[in-house]
Amino acid sequence: MPYRAGMDITLNSHEARVLGVLVEKAFTTPDQYPLSINGATNGSNQKSNRDPQVDFSEPEVRIALQGLRMKGLAGLSVASGSRVEKWRHSARETFKLEDRELAVLVELLLRGPQTAGELRGHAKRMHDIPTIEALDECLATLHERGFVRTVTGGRVPKTAQTLCTVLHPDGASAEAAASARPPAGSMAGSPTAPLAASNSGPIADRVATLEARIEELDAKVEHLMQELGG
After folding, report:
1. Residue 112 to residue 162: CA distance in whole angstroms
2. Which of 41, 108, 139, 200 is the least buried, fewest Cβ under 10 Å from its Cβ?
3. Rounded to whole angstroms, how far apart are CA atoms 72 and 59?
4. Distance between the two ends of the chain, CA-based, in angstroms?
């Protein structure tokens, strides 16, 4: 379903990061795209070009991908003769954005609010942005379409995306999470802490819970596809 003005597409922190990774890798490493679950997980957890840094598990990434598929932003890509499940994004088609605009939006998903100079320097690794004026044109379109907003309060205004309210998976800002980070080796600040707190059983039990959620999402998607096809 194509994006239109006023359409409410909201991503959680996992979906925002995974969508950003899919689009980023399509731009920067097309020979390794579409991505496997392992590739999407590694891309989500990589230390460079990311803020906040996270530690997603493969089941968490799989759930995020299923959520993106339900929102029309990702889908499976099945290569002939391959048994490896791979995923590609459909953000360009769903949001109706040009490549340069998409690169700018994705940079905001991967790194959070940025000044114009930061945004141009970071986003041009995905698509050429020759001048600040070219960036301003992209931002004007994204503002008009409701994808970004201006953040004031600092010395220099910043631009933030509007698809995901809080990019950090524990619900805190990157700055607050960094200041409250527990000692090394502690589980308290892990992105999966909410899951661990609600389920004190062994890891196998938590994985089973995630797998059950995936199966439920698969069933809902299958039912939806049948309705649309019928």
Report:
1. 10
2. 200
3. 20
4. 17
37 in Cβ contact with 62 (< 8 Å): yes
Task: Give the C-alpha distances (Å, rounded to integers) separating 48 from 21, 44, 127.
Answer: 12, 10, 18
Prediction pTM value:
0.74
Domain 13-173+191-229 -> CATH class: mainly alpha
> Which residue in the block uniquely carries the two structure tokens 């527990």?
182
Listed in sequence order, the residues at least 6 apart from 195 whose beta carbon sits closer than 8 Å to its beta carbon are 206, 209
Q: Write down the domain spans for the chain.
A: 13-173+191-229
pLDDT digits (tens, 9 = 90+) for 207-220: 555 666 676 666 66
What are the E-state strand segments in the chain? 35-36, 74-77, 86-89, 148-151, 158-161
Which residues does residue 112 pair with via DSSP β-bridges, in sequence order? none
Assign 77 to helix, strand or coil.
Answer: strand
Cα–Cα distance measured from residue 188 to residue 75, given in angstroms and rounded to the nearest whole number: 33
Residue with tokens 């805190």: 172
